[in-house]
Request: fold
Amino acid sequence: MGFDLTYAAKRAEEFAKLRDWEQFHSLKNLSMALTGEIGELVEITQWMSDEEVTELLATSEGRARIEEEVADIAIYLVRIAQRAGIDLSEAVERKFSINEARYPVDTVRGTSVKYSERKS
Amino acid sequence: MGFDLTYAAKRAEEFAKLRDWEQFHSLKNLSMALTGEIGELVEITQWMSDEEVTELLATSEGRARIEEEVADIAIYLVRIAQRAGIDLSEAVERKFSINEARYPVDTVRGTSVKYSERKS
Amino acid sequence: MGFDLTYAAKRAEEFAKLRDWEQFHSLKNLSMALTGEIGELVEITQWMSDEEVTELLATSEGRARIEEEVADIAIYLVRIAQRAGIDLSEAVERKFSINEARYPVDTVRGTSVKYSERKS
Amino acid sequence: MGFDLTYAAKRAEEFAKLRDWEQFHSLKNLSMALTGEIGELVEITQWMSDEEVTELLATSEGRARIEEEVADIAIYLVRIAQRAGIDLSEAVERKFSINEARYPVDTVRGTSVKYSERKS
Reply:
């Protein structure tokens, strides 16, 4: 299940170039587009209980709805990284290390509230 | 620049398991966490002109700020895909095909507004 | 508990004018700022159960945290309406009527899923 | 242009009660719904230049599109305040005072970047 970032970034770039849409793909505009897609993901489950979400994901139609929004987010994210000159693999690797240091297992185990407080 | 999704998903899962945080990682909660991270990304550039964004990205400190938020988004997205049983690679591949069909080059070239209207 | 919109809009405008921040308050930038504030609101409760949210709201400190984010959202929303030439009172009145027609009591009573589907 | 919060909160409550939707209106769910509406607002202008936004707002159809999303946000915000036991008027008043103290005119005048940094 490797995700070929180089391929995805290249395909997203070509998609934009062919349509002359690179002119619209500033970091700010792409961040707004990402916001829109998050909104669409969130809307799907906003009124559901966790059980209803599980039922939704158990149907291929339901999973496809989630999948499409997740893919939209992924594509805009790859595009943002590309436009910002960020290596997404390295960025994620670095962030994992930061998080592992920031939330020591012994201190935060099982405690959601502490986590929220540390975050802010 | 391959992004090893299996590795990222596994590391995110272990991170949560070690801290007994899986109990908090429902799809709804993870979507909310993703919203929070988008908010943090957007806040960085909200008052900047496009030129100031370019200047920001030209400094290693500025790029690091963007990079950290992009990584947070990527990590939560990988986690959402994992919890939802979605193969992110396939999802992105499928969405590229949908987008290429939905926005034919000849019809939409250079036209942002039409794009917005077609979307909604 | 009347909310004096004229007053709030005027105070927000003066706040911006005194700081020479009107130059930054384009509709797009304000929408991004609004996104950031929503992110901050969502982050507070993202890992909490509904019971923990109730407990949070029962403490004055917890309610104050929610209150501050809600106020930030309200202020940016008033500012957006002002910059867009929108009368917020009329807009809300109109939207109530639209919603009441769109979701007839007999059809949607008690059904969250139907509501979601109708929305999209 | 007074905005009658008591009226809006009451109408929103009755709307939910009549449809037996109060069961879905937890603070978390309402925050997610708010996120979705912000996403819809942001999507309208995401690819536009500031000039195109001005043109959009100059047409009654364009302004109506923005207005509808702004109203959706306002309604969910009123509802969130109501469910959280927050007096929106007081909250906004208090936040204006905080902001005025936090961003002294002499220090921040004309400086967007400083503002962003102080925020985070």
